[in-house]
Amino acid sequence: MTSTTNTPTVRVPDAEALGRMYTLMLTTALADQKSVAESKAGRLQAAFYPVRGMEAVCAALGEVLSPRDRLVSTYRNLGDALAKGTSLRSIMAELYGRRAGLSRGKGGTMHLQDPAIGFTATTGIVGSGLPIAVGVAMAAQLDGEGSATVVTFGDGATSIGAFHEAMNFAGLWNLPIVFVCQNNQWGEHTPIGQYAANTDLASRAASYSIPAHKVDGFDPMAALAALQSAIERARAGEGPTFLEFQHYRLTGHTGTADFSYVPANELKAAMERDPAPTFRKWLLTKNYLSEQKLEGIERHARDTVDDAFAYAARCEFPAASDIFTDVFADDTWVRSLHSD
To answer: Could you read off the pLDDT of 105-142 as tens digits, one per residue?
Structure first.
């Protein structure tokens, strides 16, 4: 079994769905840019990991995931969280360390989670979400849920031992999981060719008998087609799929990191395919959405981002008495384990 660049064709969704996708892409890009600016200004005193360049895949995820499906993400998770339906207000409150945040202001960027809607976990260690997602998928399989689990990770994670353990387990048990590799060509500050002997990441799935596809990560329609097919396979009990989305990171590793080491010609070429502006042009050229509709979406996205940041800024910090809350199991829960 080998990887392929041939992905399923997709019927262009209706105007409402296209509008949702553009809304999510633009909201992600605007919130990302504002978070970077706030980090550099010193007002967002937490590590922030930009997602610029990944918006197309996030928008496609938002269209294909149902509330029953689970998503496990990484610290570069803003678009994933929005795709699963998490409110931007609660995300930004968490980034600012406020009590109204997803983890009550104590988890920060690396620990966003919204279990009620299937945003199961995010992890701060490269590759560590993969075995977690495999466990979630196995539980869904044993319970006969008919749901899919998706795990997102960067190209660097494919060189971590936990990646290979997770892939082997998923292939062996034919789990309902979709491996979404966001190959942005950089492992922190190192280009992929300098840390991976084999840069064809999708081909790694072959040794685990997992179907794999390379997909244009800048193209939301290609991403939608690939994800629809893979998630339908998972829900139908047909096993895992590996998707390598090939695009380029448009920012530094963190919100405040210098990225002058990135070849100027590569970054220029990537910026010419900046997902949200490129999608906007496509929607207008193909007459799928009017200029008036697009401008309305853009006003809404700007208002949503401004509102979320303003909300986070006025929320209160956790009290000192909250320091051990949600850290250790409470006494009542521990006693219940020994009730027999």
So the answer is: 888 888 899 999 999 999 989 989 999 999 999 999 99
309-312: list long-range contacts, CB under 8 Å, 24+ apart. 309/34, 309/38, 309/92, 311/89, 311/92, 311/93, 311/100, 312/89, 312/92, 312/93, 312/95, 312/96, 312/98, 312/100, 312/101
Are 218 and 273 a contacting pair, CB within 8 Å? Answer: yes
Q: What is the rounded CA–CA span in Å between residue 238 and residue 297?
A: 38
Place of tokens 């360049």: 53
pTM, two decimal places: 0.92
Whether 69 and 150 have beta carbons less than 8 Å apart is answered as yes
**Two tokens, residue 15:** 């105007």
pLDDT tens, residue by residue, 226-249: 999 999 999 999 999 999 999 999
- What is the distance, to the nearest Å, from the Cα of residue 104 to the centroid of all Cα atoms in its chain? 21
What residues have CB less than 8 Å from 72, skipping those under 6 apart? 120, 121, 122, 123, 129, 130, 132, 133, 136, 149, 150, 151, 152
